[in-house]
Structure to design on (330 residues):
């Protein structure tokens, strides 16, 4: 039995990873779920649930190491962005316990989590990306790229993301956005490319999907697209950035080509689409952590359409189920 620890187990992303490990039958798995909320939905879908301290709590690292030792964890999959810098710096401590951490190097984490750093790194690599600036470092009076997008330098989802059409709107909007950056708006369909590398940096998969409807940063309608140009874009960028483990690349397919806008160094919230296309990336990651061979051929996935909806679970609060499948989850 192989044990896997997943943080932020109540999140959409963590539940997607969990589904990937549940639907496979190649490797017997027990999942330890970690979350600061002891009543999150995810805590009922795992064999073992543990309450997590915040990433900035002095006991966070000791707690994580103790859990990995207690359960003999072979793979730690972090989901919550603020955890990444610390876990990236100390991953060797987990490896000494026999636990692989699905996380990239600290420099890669920095380049991905801060949008202005993403822009700078993509510029260095020669990867097409919209002009981006930080108002803290550059006067906005000279900004000529309208329409533009204003968003937080560090953030996820669509919180505090606004489109502005002129300088007056830009100056009034940035006051309400924490640590803002300004990015040229590119007209065109929006894509996310799921990528995964093994722990040596060899690219295992690149699966693009067209995002046709999003709400509050969550994708509700999408379809996977077998576009060799985008598959190759994801593969090449994962190599150029030295990604280790999962990442999702976001971008716009504009009139002049594909522009990368953001990179998240983790699994995507809509990972379920990659699963539905016939590519089980959580299983592939686990096999890589165990030193097992992955036979998947890059680009060999199905095109599938997704329409997402929410479902509910009801239970007697005085008789809490010990396992989620007791509630009929599939």
């Amino acid at each position: 039995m192989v044990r896997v620890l997943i943080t932020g187990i109540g999140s959409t992303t963590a539940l997607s990873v969990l589904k990937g490990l549940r639907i496979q039958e190649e490797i017997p798995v027990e999942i330890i779920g970690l979350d600061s909320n002891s009543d999150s939905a995810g805590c009922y879908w795992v064999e073992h649930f543990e309450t997590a301290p915040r990433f900035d709590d002095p006991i966070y690292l000791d707690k994580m190491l103790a859990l990995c030792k207690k359960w003999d964890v072979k793979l730690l999959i972090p989901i919550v962005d603020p955890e990444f810098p610390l876990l990236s710096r100390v991953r060797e401590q987990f490896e000494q316990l026999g636990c692989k951490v699905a996380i990239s190097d600290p420099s890669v984490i920095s380049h991905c989590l801060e949008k202005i750093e993403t822009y700078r790194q993509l510029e260095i690599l020669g990867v097409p990306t919209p002009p981006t600036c930080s108002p803290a470092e550059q006067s906005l009076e000279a900004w000529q790229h309208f329409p533009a997008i204003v968003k937080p330098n560090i953030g996820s989802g669509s919180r505090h993301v606004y489109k502005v059409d002129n300088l007056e709107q830009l100056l009034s909007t940035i006051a309400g956005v924490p640590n803002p950056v300004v990015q040229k708006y590119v007209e065109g369909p929006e894509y996310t490319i799921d990528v995964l590398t093994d722990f040596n940096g060899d690219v295992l998969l690149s699966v693009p999907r067209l995002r046709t409807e999003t709400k509050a940063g969550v994708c509700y309608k999408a379809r996977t697209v077998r576009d060799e140009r985008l598959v190759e874009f994801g593969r090449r960028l994962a190599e150029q950035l030295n990604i280790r483990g999962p990442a999702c690349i976001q971008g716009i397919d504009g009139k002049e080509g594909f522009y990368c806008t953001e990179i998240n160094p983790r699994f995507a919230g809509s990972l379920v689409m990659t699963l539905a296309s016939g590519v089980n990336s959580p299983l592939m990651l686990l096999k890589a952590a165990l030193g097992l061979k992955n036979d998947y051929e890059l680009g060999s996935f199905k095109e599938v359409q997704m329409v997402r909806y929410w479902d509910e679970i009801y239970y007697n609060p005085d008789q809490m189920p010990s396992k989620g499948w007791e509630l009929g989850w599939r």
In short: The two ends are 21 Å apart (CA to CA). The first helix runs from residue 12 to 23. The domain at 2-111+189-327 is CATH 3.30.470.20 (D-amino Acid Aminotransferase; Chain A, domain 1).
